[in-house]
Write a structure and sequence with these properties.
The chain is 39% helix and 15% strand. Strands 1, 2, 3, 4, 5, 6, 7 and 8 form an 8-stranded mixed sheet that branches. Helix 1 packs across helix 2, helix 2 runs antiparallel to helix 9 and helix 3 packs parallel to helix 4. By secondary structure, it is an alpha/beta fold. Helix 8 links the parallel strand 4 and strand 5. It contains 11 helices and 8 strands.
Length: 268
């Protein structure tokens, strides 16, 4: 277990504006958020009743996808935009299948940095580490991740509920990350879409933008662009609760629409 990365950046928390990780934390019932985050979370909930089950469905998708990767032999995981710790965390899922798995978390929220110690409690056989960096700072993020991961071996790159906070430079950015990963690596990605609940998602997007947080829902063809040149794994690109669902996910589907697409692919 390593944790040196957690001490490399000073903790300066801006409580004057909401942060997506803390808004998400409020939706998941967490306590690591501020009034400004709760205010935005409640405003979005008032115009989009899907957000609570969407947050839960995203976490469940991450768990299923990571488990699938580990069961297929992947032993290295890079989780970018990891968010505030919510159990089970990615390393608990991966190391539950393969105790020797290596996991690196990365996020730009100082609150996540503050909680990095909780994220770093993995198995004795494996390793966990935390990088305090923005997804757009690819060189810094990957160079620090390489202290723990062997980028000459396959890595599962997790970008769950992240790309809808990035403009269309996200396509080039995801391609740049994948270009640095070797064949056999995986991409695990989910993204808010306007396709399934257009009015609610537009209202939610407007609330994010008014708060100063960019927000970019994407249609299915737009989402599919992230996977160009990759080998899609079954069942393909699908609403998040339907990706290899377990009984709990079927129950979520019965609650109503979750306007989030999910996909998992392998680099050939």
């Amino acid at each position: 277990m390593t944790g040196s990365e957690a001490g490399q950046a000073p903790v300066r928390i801006d409580t004057s504006r909401p942060h997506p990780a803390r808004v998400y934390d409020w939706w998941l019932g967490g306590k690591d958020n501020y009034p400004v985050d709760e205010e935005l979370a409640r405003r979005i909930l008032a115009v989009d009743g899907t957000v609570l089950r969407g947050a839960r469905a995203n976490r469940r998708f991450m768990q299923r996808a990571v488990r699938a990767a580990a069961e297929s032999g992947i032993r290295q995981f890079l989780d970018v935009g990891t968010g505030i710790p919510t159990e089970p965390n990615l390393h608990q899922v991966a190391q539950g299948v393969a105790p020797e798995a290596k996991v690196v978390y990365a996020d730009n929220d100082p609150i996540v940095l503050r909680h990095a110690e909780a994220l770093l409690r993995g198995t004795a056989e494996g390793s966990t580490a935390y990088v305090h960096a923005d997804v757009r700072d690819l060189e810094t993020l990957l160079s620090q991740a390489a202290d723990s991961l062997d980028l000459g071996r396959p890595v599962a790159l997790s970008l769950v509920a992240l790309t809808h906070y990035l403009d269309d430079t996200a396509y080039e950015l995801v391609r740049a990350y994948l270009a640095r990963l070797v064949p056999g690596s995986w991409l695990i990605l989910s993204q808010v879409t306007p396709d399934l609940s257009p009015e609610a998602i537009e209202n939610a997007a407007n609330q994010f933008r008014r708060s100063g947080t960019p927000f970019f829902p994407r249609s299915l063809p737009e989402f599919a662009r992230f996977f160009e040149g990759l080998e899609l794994l079954g069942p393909g690109l699908i609403p998040v609760s339907g990706w290899r669902p377990e009984p709990e996910d079927v129950a979520v589907q019965a609650e109503g629409i979750v306007p989030v697409y999910a996909g998992v692919a392998r680099k050939s």
